[in-house]
Amino acid sequence: MTGNGQRPDAGRDCDGNLDRRQEQGFDQEQEEYGPTNQPLLPEDTIARRIVDRLKNPWVIAILIVVFVPMVVWVGYTVHADLTSPDYGTATIYDESGDYLASVEGNVAATWREQYTGLSNTDSLEDGHGMIFLHDTERERTYVMRDMAFPIDIIFIDKEGRITVIHHAELESRDPLTEYRGQSKYVLEVPYYWTTDNGIDVGDTVEFRWGPPRTETGGISIASSSGPRNDVPINSKRRPTASSP
């Protein structure tokens, strides 16, 4: 006798076996819904639709066009962040090789530093400035964005020759004046510093660089403190040219 009053042989045939229809139905259910047969991404789910879209060749092509340049750009920024110097000295000579002047300052090597430039600086002392270090030579455009004082902008090609000098005044309205020049390096120095020191197009600039940023913890923003001891300042003797 059972507790629920059901016959002990309920669900069995006359031979005492399980009903075959129940057994077949149970096996089919196990086959359809068993954990080993469940699809990883069931139909009509958001995840499945995304995966199906990613299989489309056009979608793959668009992702390559968008993300590959982005990865390259991020990689270059990180590389510049770690391997570029924090400080440098630019020594300028005339076409005869005679010393004219030198300027020391922070190096702007990453896109963040180059976009900011001197816009977060209140003033420049004589003989100080900022050195913009680019990876290749081409025509570049600089503007006086959020500047607090006027400056001279010196464009320098990969050989160290000055190609253009601009006397850039303060501006408060858009569009800002675009100062163009063929360059791999750009110097921003005090206003009319080039005139006061007799510097002109065709003169030569030689750079001496401080240690790579990997030796100083990978600093990503140019420091505002003084120059490092291993960067020669105001040298009157023409040093050996160096490049990054």
Automatic annotation (TrEMBL):
<dbReference type="Pfam" id="PF02643">
    <property type="entry name" value="DUF192"/>
</dbReference>
<keyword id="KW-0812">Transmembrane</keyword>
<keyword id="KW-0472">Membrane</keyword>
<feature type="region of interest" description="Disordered">
    <location>
        <begin position="210"/>
        <end position="244"/>
    </location>
</feature>
<feature type="transmembrane region" description="Helical">
    <location>
        <begin position="58"/>
        <end position="76"/>
    </location>
</feature>
<keyword id="KW-1133">Transmembrane helix</keyword>
<feature type="region of interest" description="Disordered">
    <location>
        <begin position="1"/>
        <end position="40"/>
    </location>
</feature>
<dbReference type="InterPro" id="IPR003795">
    <property type="entry name" value="DUF192"/>
</dbReference>
<feature type="compositionally biased region" description="Basic and acidic residues">
    <location>
        <begin position="9"/>
        <end position="24"/>
    </location>
</feature>
<dbReference type="InterPro" id="IPR038695">
    <property type="entry name" value="Saro_0823-like_sf"/>
</dbReference>
<feature type="compositionally biased region" description="Basic residues">
    <location>
        <begin position="235"/>
        <end position="244"/>
    </location>
</feature>
<protein>
    <recommendedName>
        <fullName>DUF192 domain-containing protein</fullName>
    </recommendedName>
</protein>
